């Protein structure tokens, strides 16, 4: 078959998978409040190859907040601003095996376990430099825009407002860390930077470009712009692989085998180095806070297309 015929065949297979997963019964444990009870049917899926080829299925233009997916990009900026050693001194790279909001720390090293859970992401947010809170948020937004190749991407003020009013747990976590010397500086500023990043909205079409930018060594394959320094791409992808799916990370790696990060809004971004970025959005969550449909379709995509890093050729 010609390349065009092959591309059509791939597209048809994914269309079929997407259709099947849309109607398949799912075991939803929860929805993020506000996010999704209103639109549990939404199911967007996008892929971007590092060559720039793009595919989209379902509601791939529907916008949703990054939530924890933002932790990937906050960590990227923290690394760039502080370097590898200084960043690791403050936040580890060890999967915690605990839920995303757990109040446990790497006591031996006096730091949160990793930057993909709330405690570690708060420390990463504190490591993002800037003149003040607004400047730090602006730098993060700018970075997300570069990853996605869309200068219009921004924080949704309504989402931010809602999160600021329901964040006692994160506040508690941050104050506890500051009391024990793991977090420095103004807690409200740090929380606001962290939650602003969580409140940046994207579509799966954009998020897949963000994944493809990571897969492409930090250069956006659509715009050709470098979104982060090449030297830290492997650091970011490594923590996605080991810690990106919270306490579901081990099962995810076993079943799907690709570096990814989820958020409680129901989004997942995956980055397969030198190959593709994938994004999926469907709000129903499993017990770990990962999108049920998202995990299911990624498992099938991985099987069908041999995406698992240890798949037999
Ligand atoms: N903003 C949410 C929180 O901090 C994000 C958590 C998530 O996506 N798991 O609670």
Automatic annotation (TrEMBL):
Q: InterPro entries from the entry? A: Beta-lactam/transpept-like, Glutaminase
Which EC class is the enzyme in?
hydrolase
Task: Say yes or no: keyword Secreted present.
Answer: no
Q: Does the keyword Acetylation apply?
A: yes
What are the EC numbers? Answer: 3.5.1.2
The chemistry this enzyme catalyses reads: L-glutamine + H2O = L-glutamate + NH4(+)
Keyword field: Acetylation, Hydrolase
Q: Name one GO molecular function term.
A: glutaminase activity
Q: Binding of substrate: at which residues?
A: 68, 118, 170, 194, 246, 264
Family statement drawn from the similarity comment of this UniProt entry: Belongs to the glutaminase family.
Summarize subunit and interaction data from the UniProt record for this chain: Homotetramer.
Output this protein's name: Glutaminase
Organism listed in the record:
Actinomycetospora rhizophila
């Amino acid at each position: 078959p010609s390349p065009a015929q092959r591309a059509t065949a791939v597209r048809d297979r994914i269309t079929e998978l997407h259709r099947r997963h849309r109607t398949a019964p799912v075991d939803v444990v929860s929805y993020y409040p506000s996010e999704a009870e209103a639109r549990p049917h939404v199911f967007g899926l996008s892929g971007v190859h590092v060559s720039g080829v793009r595919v989209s299925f379902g509601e791939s233009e529907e916008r949703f907040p990054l939530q924890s997916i933002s932790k990937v990009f906050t960590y990227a900026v923290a690394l760039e601003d502080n370097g590898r050693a200084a960043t690791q001194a403050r936040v580890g790279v060890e999967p915690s095996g605990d839920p995303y909001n757990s109040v446990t720390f790497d006591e031996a090293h006096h730091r949160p376990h990793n930057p993909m859970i709330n405690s570690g992401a708060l420390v990463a947010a504190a490591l993002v430099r800037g003149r003040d809170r607004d400047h730090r948020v602006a730098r993060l937004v700018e970075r997300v825009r570069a990853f996605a190749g869309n200068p219009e991407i921004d924080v949704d003020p309504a989402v931010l407002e809602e999160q600021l009013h329901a964040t006692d747990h994160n506040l508690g976590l941050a104050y506890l860390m500051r009391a024990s010397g793991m977090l420095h500086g103004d807690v409200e500023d740090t929380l606001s930077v962290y939650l602003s990043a969580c409140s940046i909205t994207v579509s799966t079409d954009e998020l897949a470009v963000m994944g493809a930018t990571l897969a492409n060594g930090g250069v956006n394959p659509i715009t050709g712009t470098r979104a982060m320094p090449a030297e830290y791409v492997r650091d970011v992808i490594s923590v996605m692989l080991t810690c990106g799916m919270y306490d579901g990370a081990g099962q995810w790696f076993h079943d799907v085998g690709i570096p990814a990060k989820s958020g409680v809004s129901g989004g997942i971004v995956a980055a397969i180095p030198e190959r593709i970025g994938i994004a999926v959005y469907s709000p129903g969550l499993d017990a770990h806070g990962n999108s049920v449909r998202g995990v299911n379709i990624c498992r099938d995509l991985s099987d069908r297309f041999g995406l698992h890093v240890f798949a037999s050729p």
